[in-house]
Amino acid sequence: MKNRLIWEQILSDDLNPFYDAAPRAHSTGLISREELALANRNSGIFLEALQHDITPAGMHYLLVHFDVPNIRKEDWRLEVSGLVGNPLALTLDDIKALPAVTMPVTLECAGNGRTAMTPRTCSMPWFFEAVGTAEWTGTPLSHVLDHAGLAEDAVEIAFFGADRGFDRGIEHDYGRSLTPDKAMSDEVLLCYEMNGMPLLPQHGFPLRLIVPGWYGMASVKWLDRIEVLDHAFQGHQQVGTYRYRQDSGDEGRPVDVIRVRSLMAPPGIPDWYTRRRMVDAGAVEMTGRAWSGGGVAVERVEFAVDGVWQDARLEPRGGDYAWTKWTCIWQAEPGEHVLACRATDANGDVQPLEQVWDNSGFGNNIVQQVSVTVR
Ligand SMILES: Nc1nc2c(c(=O)[nH]1)N[C@H]1C(S)=C(S)[C@@H](COP(=O)(O)O)O[C@H]1N2
Ligand SMILES: [Mo]
pTM of whole model > 0.85? Predict the structure, then answer.
């Protein structure tokens, strides 16, 4: 059904040059020109920044599908329309006048880790760096929805950004939806500040949605339109992508809650070109971060040297949706070693050593491994 609609739209549009590119093939071997261009636009966190509780804004990862819109605050409004008693067009000052909340939230891109997949999906080629934790300030979305008055028969609420482009031949404003229940839950925020500063243009200025505990695609940037629907939202980012599928023909199911993952800040010093590490022998304090989605806590992090695991120490997390710091002392002995870490959450979910991949590399949480030389 969904695929037919998409292909009808593509085939009926004579002036659409992008259908040739759809669907994108899986690939092996060298990175493509397109992947390299995406990697230059969408920066990742520096893994050494896993030392920070709160990621400085300029070190937070970025994922921008189309162009960063150039929005003047004075011209911008947040429209709320569709099945509401009271349609709204709010200024940023209207939104700032509502009760404010500040919350540390770990955001992670659903495609984080996908370069470990082979053959790989041609998309943003993340290794492990599509994660960050910022202090987000805004007002609970429920305040605005209460003000608008959701109709009883609302089925989904769609959130649109000011950015527009093509994906797989389909032209659209970036848009994602939530159910009314999810949209009204306390933790979902309309945010205008990141780490105590107005949002940077690339992080969604002047306003973005933050859906804590879900992969990043739900946290719509440059938010300017909320539409309350009597049906399930059919936008491309909702039904065409960000779904767990075995192959590209499946209907699949939506990507939502973040899966448990841990990362380490690589020890020692790197080689500029290969980024392989050199570590001095002796006691090395290893540290990193671990997180899971849906507000679920991390219960255990293990650290391994050459496949021998030991428990790491966990520090209290800064909030239900923020990552947990872990530390571990490693008695480093001269030679070549492979380091790894893996987390288990309160649901008992644990990171796999061997990933079962979906078609797009979404939601993978494969164990990170770092090769080092100890001298
Ligand atoms: N409007 C809009 N919102 C968006 C995106 C986008 O391209 N356009 N990218 C999404 C994805 S896939 C992710 S992972 C997060 C990244 O947020 P960040 O760039 O602030 O880290 O934003 C999400 N919100
Ligand atoms: Mo993402």
Answer: yes
